[in-house]
Amino acid sequence: MKPFYVLHPGIVVSRYDGQEHYITAQQLAGLYRVNQNDCAVYRSENDQYRTPRPLVHLYPRDDGNYTLPQYAAGKMLRESLGRHMSGFIGKPITPIALAEVQAAATQALRETAAAYPDLFEETVEAVPCGSNRIVLAWGPRAQQALEDDATNAGTQ
Fold first, then answer.
1. Element (H, E) at 135
2. How far is CA 6 from the centre of its chain?
3. Most CB within 10 Å of its CB: which of 56, 63, 92, 98?
């Protein structure tokens, strides 16, 4: 399995007690609450991280805030939806197509949920909208992640 995350173990000086701590890759995965099987460990500038999906780089933090960046979940979901939905563009809407679109969108959401289990616990609904459009509807957490991704992309 290809990684979702790149762990950057290292030294951090705590903002609260001023002490220096070395955070191992295993500790970093635990602090961010990610599965180590979904991680690569950064070792040097020569490491190559080529994957079909964006990787999220995780570092020791001096403030102790080890929540995953939500914009990264939105980016992953957007790219996964693009991969899974590309085969449906321009095709007529039929009851079978509607079911296939819903299955593809659900698969995209499941891929993202595997990387961000605390963020996505939602189902996807494919709703016909006119004669040649389908609207995908999902819960507020997925919507917020996509909005955060769009905002983050606009500032880079």
1. strand 134-137
2. 13
3. 56
